[in-house]
Specification:
alpha+beta, Alpha-Beta Plaits, 2 domains, 9% strand, elongated
């Protein structure tokens, strides 16, 4: 492997314009494809095989007129006025009519006229048990009445300050033409704002979250500063940033260009962007740092140093990227289309980042040539340096000396951080999760104050006859509505639609609790459990859907598949680590260390978002459930990145061992050489992920936090403290491998030992081996 990559690095260094031209042509082609076919992002969370999704699919087939996406608008009256007054009532009616005039919004009056059946239109949120289908329903209390006629879909609070307008689109919101949501809100705002009535979009009308904001830009700026400090020059620091942006552009651009073949979720793009930037910068950093080290300490010219850096550090990059790709593609075993697309896009972006680091980066180094090391850096390297003052050597010396205490301390800290995990609840964050002052949060609070928490997440109950083809009898439906209304935790229940053949009825059930409340989850389970009873007593079976039910089902499904996913990831990655390190202990230690870090990460995420600890620091002032996809996403991404640090750090320790150091000397020597760049890489990844914590979207915020905190825990607690402590405990026994297994495993030469021996034999170069035991190889200085 190292010999092949050495040749690749040398060739690309010598032919930079060819390589750069190929990558530039690829990026131009992707830009052209996007111009010709603009991408469309989705906010859908489709979980195939769950009860809620099955109900949605059934309604789409049997009752498409009520299966479209649901929207809501919240109106707030000026101080001292009522929205149902003679002055403001007509204003609301005009705003509602403006919304119904939008082509993609279903007008219930047209729907009832076309069907000639009562109850087919989306229902007005009730405040008492309604009349049953088959009779002309009277307007429930709270319904806005203008000129003696009820305004369909609008309910006014008792104090008249707040009105909730619920309506329906003719398609799912993520499939609507671009600009439809904005046009819908604008249609309501036009007459309302002239009268001083505030219009707030409901949570379902939120736009696609911004992918790049101020926080993300600050994160990149921090990464650039760390690169300058680590590599010592603006030129050297600019290369990792440039290659990372090129890799992300190719990865995400390719996903956008192919978006017409699959549904591209906004969260998939955000994850690929986060991961692509982080690993792209890190992989280039490892190679550039090794090249400069070879130039400054071994006296090699830039071309030869580039080839050797790609052959050695590039081998570690290749296998580190392989572990990330394995961890991501293992998400396919979950069988959820959302996660499948997310995993494939992120894995492809990481694979492209590896390819960029091994081809485009050495080509750019071919343009920079000897300028990669400034005269100041060369002069400082030529002078005398006191190596005993190296902070990395002092730290590893302390860890090695007190290795048993270090193991106990790290384990205790990780266990303490993991304690909140015992109370973690999974779900989908609601509009309540947004920060104060955002339209989503203001709308949520107004609805909760005026109508109750449950109106922010009503349940959709589909009732169909147990005997196919038989219409639902009105008395049976009336009894069903009355029974559901009497359940504990139900504020109201009423019909919201009826199929033309009368075999399917849609009910809207409003809980007394919010969408993420545990009591709401219990209510969904109770309604589903009663389906069999209703089938026997009334001849009606039930299915529950809606955003709240979808979130509950998603959490349960992901909880079920998480153990399978972990087994697949750990099994495949153990094989890769066994091949790379040719050791039994090192892969096992790496895996156990990751389990400590991931448990601590989940605990910290629970404490901040669910318990509310320090959440104001991150722009939050409310608590919520942990997003149900966090355990899966964080496990896959963090495992891959943790193995990045494992490979770069432990391969340096193994390289020192192979080149003559033994026992704790190899740990000290290898750690001192590699830790500086690992620290820089961890800070860069934390900065990139941390920038997304301040994204307005609560889902993006949680993903950014979990990944940033996970990197900090794994890099500084596990890799830079626990790993050298355990390696020092075992000494040379850490590299033990049964003889029969040693014969079976191929020698991948990740450390480049065979490559160095061959090159030394050919050119008579100064060996690149480590210096004799007890002496530290000089690291590349800044400057």
């Amino acid at each position: 492997m190292s010999t092949l990559l050495y040749r690749v690095g040398r060739w690309t260094y010598r032919h930079p314009f060819r390589v750069i031209g190929v990558w530039a042509a690829l990026l131009v082609a992707l830009v052209g494809a996007l111009v010709l076919n603009p991408p469309k992002l989705s906010t859908e969370f489709r979980i195939d095989g769950t009860p809620a999704q099955e109900v949605i699919d059934e309604l789409a087939r049997e009752l498409p007129e009520v299966s479209g996406g649901q929207g809501s608008l919240v109106f707030q009256a000026p101080a001292g006025d009522r929205l149902d007054s003679e002055l403001l009532g007509p204003v609301l009616a005009e705003a509602v009519q403006g919304v119904y005039s939008v082509e993609e919004v279903v007008d219930p009056a047209d729907l009832m006229q076309s069907q000639q059946q009562p109850g087919a239109a989306p229902a007005t949120p009730p405040r008492s048990t309604p009349e049953t289908p088959g009779n002309a329903p009277s307007a429930p209390p709270g319904t806005l009445v203008v000129g003696g006629q009820p305004v369909l879909g609008v309910t006014v609070s008792e104090d008249g300050r707040v009105a909730l307008f619920q309506f329906q689109f003719d398609d799912q919101i993520f499939e609507l033409p671009q600009g439809t949501v904005a046009d819908t809100v604008a249609a309501a705002e036009a007459p309302a704002e002239e009268a001083g009535v505030a219009v707030l979009p409901g949570a379902t009308l939120q736009e696609i979250p911004e992918i790049i904001g101020v926080g993300e830009i600050v994160g990149l700026a921090v990464a650039a500063l760390v690169l300058v400090v680590t590599l010592g020059s603006v030129v050297a620091a600019g290369l990792p940033l440039l290659t990372a942006l090129a890799g992300v552009g190719a990865g995400i651009g390719g996903a956008f260009a192919l978006a017409h073949l699959f549904e591209l979720n906004s969260l998939s793009v955000v994850l690929a962007l986060m991961l692509g930037l982080a690993v792209g910068i890190d992989y280039a950093l490892f190679i550039v740092n090794r090249q400069r080290w070879l130039i400054l300490t071994r006296g090699l010219d830039a071309g030869e140093a580039t080839g050797r850096a790609v052959g050695t550090a590039g081998s570690a990059v290749f296998f580190a990227g392989t572990t990330v790709v394995i961890a991501l593609t293992a998400l396919l075993v979950v069988g959820i289309s959302l996660l499948t697309v997310m995993a494939l896009i992120a894995a492809a972006t990481v694979a492209i980042a590896v390819l960029v680091a091994l081809t485009l980066l050495p080509a750019l180094l071919g343009l920079v040539k000897e300028r990669i090391c400034s005269p100041r850096a060369r002069a400082r390297q030529a002078g005398h340096r006191d190596r005993s003052r190296n902070p990395a050597r002092r730290w590893v010396g302390l860890v090695v000396r007190y290795r048993w205490a270090a193991v106990v301390l790290v384990t205790a800290v990780a266990a303490l951080l993991a304690l909140p995990l015992s109370s973690m609840r999974l779900g989908m964050p609601s509009a309540e999760s947004y920060g104060s002052g955002t339209p989503q949060r203001e709308g949520y609070d107004l609805v909760a104050e005026g109508f109750g928490e449950g109106f922010n997440g009503p349940l959709v109950v589909a009732a169909r006859t147990a005997e196919p083809g038989t219409p639902i009898e009105p008395p049976a439906l009336q009894e069903l509505v009355a029974d559901l209304s009497a359940l504990d935790g139900v504020q109201s229940a009423m019909p919201a639609g009826l199929s033309q053949d009368g075999t399917i009825a849609v009910l809207q059930v409003v809980p007394t609790t919010g969408p993420t409340d545990e009591a709401t989850e219990d209510l969904v389970a109770e309604i589903r459990d009663r389906s069999a009873q209703y089938g026997d007593d009334l001849g009606i079976t039930l299915g529950v859907t809606g955003l709240t039910a979808i979130g509950i089902d998603m959490s349960q499904r992901l909880s079920e598949v998480l153990p399978i996913y972990l087994a697949v990831v750990l099994g495949l990655s153990l094989i890769v680590l066994l091949l790379v390190f040719r050791s039994i202990l090192v892969p096992v230690k790496a895996t156990l260390g990751f389990l400590l870090s991931i448990l601590a990460t989940f605990g910290a995420t629970t404490a901040v978002f669910q318990w509310g600890w320090l959440n104001q620091v991150f722009g939050l002032d409310s608590t919520t459930v942990v997003m149900s996809v966090i355990p899966i996403i964080a496990t896959g991404v963090l495992y891959g990145l943790a193995m990045d640090y494992q490979i770069f750090l432990v391969s340096s320790i193994r390289e020192s061992h192979v080149h003559g150091h033994h026992g704790t000397d190899s740990v000290t020597d290898g750690f001192t050489q590699a830790s500086r760049v690992v620290v820089a890489a961890a800070i860069i990844m934390t900065a990139v992920f941390g920038g997304f914590i301040f994204n307005a979207d609560p889902m993006v915020k949680q993903v950014g936090f979990a990944l940033a905190v996970g990197i900090l825990i794994d890099a500084f607690l596990i890799r830079l403290t626990l790993v050298p402590a355990v390696m020092a405990m075992f000494g040379d026994r850490a590299w033990w491998l049964p003889a029969w297994l040693d014969r079976l495993l191929p020698d991948l030469d990740v450390e480049g030992d065979k490559l160095v021996q061959r090159l030394n034999g050919e050119h008579g170069d100064v060996p690149e081996a480590a210096e004799p035991p007890g002496r530290e190889p000089a690291s590349a200085p800044a400057g």
